[in-house]
Prior knowledge:
The chain is of the alpha+beta class. The chain has helices at 2-5, 10-67, 82-87, and strands spanning 74-80, 89-100, 110-115, 118-123, 132-143, 152-155, 164-167, 173-176, 183-189.
Amino acid sequence: DxxxxxxxxxxxxxxxxxxxxxxxxxxxxxxREKARxxxxxxxxxxxxxxxxxxxxxxxxxxxxxxxxxxxxxxRTRLVLTTEEAAVGGKHRLSIEVEExxxxxxxxxxxxxxxxxxxxxxxxxSKCQGVTRVVxxxxxxxxxxxxSVDGDxxxxxxxxxxxYAQRLGRFKQTVKEGGEDGNVRVVLVVLxxxxxxxxxPEIDCYGNI
Length: 208
């Protein structure tokens, strides 16, 4: 056993120390490699997020160029019973709309930080650099008495927010660039058996 083995020789001590040092160096090298790999993954993820943000912003710019700065129209549907359609009245409908990001609308979606004298670009954590965020919203739909399957109701200004415009050389002033978009609601009136008719086959869609 260790008690009867006697003291270790200098060579044994040196060999053990070298072995421990080698293990420590190997562990340190593995830690550095893992850190390097993580840094590389983070950089790749940031570049991918930047590309996605720039693509979304280019699409928004094309929409503004084509249709102006007003929010894009949303098309959705409201399911009613025959009684609700016959009587009419106000109905609340939950939708999702785009809004200008409240955190970074003046920063264009990107934050520039000074870290060790280097400018580090960071995406806004709320909108991921797109400058627009999706939020839930309740709108009121006025259904006319005697409505039938396929009728449409236009809720003016109930949809996506108008795009913000950045003014000035350094884009330090921001104003709402356009009016909020409309919501076009297609009425789906159920049959007496509670089934939807074949018309209209419409899904909710919009630029959100």
